[in-house]
Design goal:
- The structure holds 2 protein chains of 2 kinds.
- By secondary structure, chain A is an alpha/beta fold.
- Chain A has 10 helices and 8 strands.
- Chain A has a 6-stranded parallel sheet, with helices on both faces. A two-stranded antiparallel sheet of chain A has the order 4-5.
- In chain A, strand 4 and strand 5 form a beta hairpin.
- The termini of chain A are far apart.
- The mean pLDDT of chain A is 84.
- In chain B, helix 8 runs antiparallel to helix 10 and helix 14 runs parallel beside helix 15.
- In chain B, a hairpin with a 2-residue loop joins strand 8 and strand 9.
- Chain B is elongated, with a radius of gyration of 38 Å.
- By secondary structure, chain B is of the alpha+beta class.
- The chains are: A alpha/beta, B alpha+beta.
- Chains A and B meet through helix 1, helix 6 and helix 9 of A and strand 1, helix 9, helix 11, helix 12 and helix 14 of B.
Chain lengths: 209, 579
Amino acid sequence: MTMDLVLIDDHELIRSGLRRTFEAQDDMTVVAELSTCAQARAAVWTGPALVTVVDVNLPDGSGLDLVPQLRELAPNMGIVVLTMLDSDEHLLRALDGGASAFVTKSAASCELVAAVRHAAASPHAFTAADLAGAMRRRMAAGRGVTLTARERDVLDLLKLGIPVSSVAARLCISSSTAKAHISKVYEKLGVENRTQAIMEALRLGLLAS
Amino acid sequence: MGVTTGVSAGRRSGALASGRGSVQHDGRRQVHAGAPTKLQTAKPASRSSRLNDQHPKAMAVFRSCLLALSLVVIVLTQPNTLSGCWVIPLAAPELYIRGRIVPDRQLSLLGFWWTSLSALAVLWTGGGHSPMLPATAVGVFFAGLGGGFFASLEASGLCSALLLGVWLVGHGQLHESTHDYLGMSAQWVLLSVGFGSAGSWIGRHNTSTEFGSAQRYAEARALIEQLRSVTTKLPGSLDVATTCEVLLESCLDACHATVGAVLLHVGDAYLVPITMRGVTRVPWRHPSVGPGPMQIAWETGQPVIDTRPADVSAGNPGRRAGSTLFVVPVLSPDGVLALVALQVPNAAQFTEEAMKAVRATVEEYAIRLETATLFEQVRSAVTVEERSRLAHDMHDGVAQDVAYIGFELDLLHTKAARVDDALADSITQLRSRTTRIIQDIRASITDLRSSRSVERGLGSALSSCVRNAGAAGPLAVHLTLDESSFRLPAGAEIELFRVAHDFTKQACEGGSARNLWVTLVVEPPTAFLRLQHDGDFHPRDLGQRHSAQRLAMVGGRLLVAERAPSGLLVEASIGEDFS
């Protein structure tokens, strides 16, 4: 059975290289080439063995944000995330978004073709080079976080959704000091806002759900 | 493969993620905040100018209506055939507005000549009953049109002087007919003032309509000229470190202290010791860590003096030996900009006069420090933007091109493998090299973005960097972080990060390393970074000249040596030697 492929990448040269790579395979056909998230969302996702290869950096958004939308549009479609800058963060976001595979652009073509075949066969199973390592590092990073008693107090109050001034008042400290504690909590958890901090703290077991 | 983390007890726990804002990249601070400077004196466009810019056609119609009204007034006041002649001079300004046939200064001059001649003509053609009286208003109108309101007033004054002066010269004395003449003249002089005002108003709008954008460029140019002038004529400089040095020296001189520091506020609530005297590390408690004089000064914005008696049982140096700390906040309109801390062994040294002098010095330098900080932010923002642009261009340009070549080489290899094994092997080697090039480009992109990476703190950036290194290959990463509550200057953090980044990249590229050890100790204003790997050692690794030069620019040193029993050792230090 022939696999129909859709390529989403804003670089024409890369699309050209990918098309030639896939069409060199007997069972793969590139049926569409798109260059933006908007085009991808507007496309109708049908077909029994459709696989989409999506770049991360697109002109109108991130391919990583596009993945969950594509998954919703076509639940049984294989989604391969292709990126120039690989990192644990990208890999894990692709996993969380529902992608089927994660491949870097520096990888050999055979790796990419194998990832596409995997995505077609098991769209809901994720594969990536060093996935286990990324997971292990994430767990190790989480275990390393320890908060002081004061930071735990601040985090507990943040969970209540009260403003910084109220946090300061309840702890009998100034707003500046409260902000410093909050910054420290964000820094230790590796997050940038209150919601992320609470979610991360819950995930790491630093807060009782 | 993996990461092990060690954290020194009592200092900093869970240090894998350590991020703080930085001086340059604090997006919450507005560049134009603070005390007014010369740069803020640019006159904003008036409401009427904006109206003219937004509705030029409506304003043209309005001007034409005004012209028509003027003609009606003239015809009603001088109902004779000569009135029709005034259409020509009164239409001239409109022609001027439409086509700019006469430059502004020449037009103003023309107005003055016209006014003078018309005043003389009035005297020659009948005085108070002369049909030339309205011509005086036309001249004033031209003067206002070309030279503005004050030029129109000058033209009116000239007209009055001529009408009165020449009359007196010609008639010798005042008599009954003089009253009629003076009444008519005064009436037309007043009218000419009105015409002059209208002319200046129309002239201003004409300029803003046709040359609005050029005017804005001229204003921008003037502002840049002012900035250049300000930066070259300042008594000090716009460098934060130099300003802090001078401030601290002045404060130390004022109270004869030998120990002191200037700690600059960055990010949300962090302090960076920019300059210090008499100590190698900050011996006082960070405001966010616990109560103390620093915290009180930080939170209240008031100077604080704290005397600590000697702890004879401890027998330790530092504050336990007994000392007095005087903390003076440097205030800006946004709050506390920095803290100046001065320490003396004897409280008597801080006399009222000395403290008053210190406060006065700090007050004097507050605006300098704030200006230097703002300038640094602007300069850093430009640098960061440029680096981001380069990173973006590399990512979207050469990196994609090389990736494409990689795909093509794979295809070529498939075809070559069917006919010539040797050729296929060569292509495989070429493909391997291409992959390495892509990884190098990727590393360079990361390096270009490194100034953004350290926004959240050196420890955090370093953790992320080595984690990625562990992810990219079979490298076990051993990371130990020991960071103070205070931060290093942003420039020092960036350079240390680059050293670590380059070393990590080298360890990954070598392929032979199995372990990477990273130790970071930050005790502002000093810091120590030790990097080791157990891969192959190459003599060329010793020549990290560029890293050493960059580090030297922020007061650091770099040591590169062969690691025993194998591998490479790099030590980078800033400030005092940790060894």
